[in-house]
Amino acid sequence: MQKLNSIIPKFLIPLIFPSMIIGIFLSHLIISILIIIFLYKTISEKNYFYFKSNFCIFFVLFNLVILISSLFSDNLLFSLEPSLFYFRFFLFSLAIWYFLDLDKSIIKLFVFISSITLFFLISYGIIQFLYFDIINVYDFRISSFFGDEYILGSFIVRLFLIIIG
Which residues 6+ apart lie within 8 Å of 52 measured at CB? Predict the structure, then answer.
């Protein structure tokens, strides 16, 4: 079981960006699995170092400010919906930090798989632009593998910046 807990994050972290192309459910599932493994390992090992950092204190205070300001909003349900589960980003960032401390080879695999994802997105976008007539005529936008969502440009820019970093 211990070996399995260290192998799963090594292959799930690099699959985060390719899973976003397929759909939001798969990427949220990967993130949830990583958070559950992180919480299980830190609690079972009694390793609370990651929860005692300055980042943790700042993020908890920031999350509290967001929740309190949402409670004073005019439209409570509309305001609470995005801010109530904002802590998952905090747990996800702690999980990534933890798994990268355990195994630095995750970075190489992440960069490799993300580069392949970027290559396929750009290649299919060029093919779609040159050979298919699936372009949004009004905006001159290409969707590539994203279907009706024209987010190819923003996805490529964000993924490219993360790969460079």
Answer: none
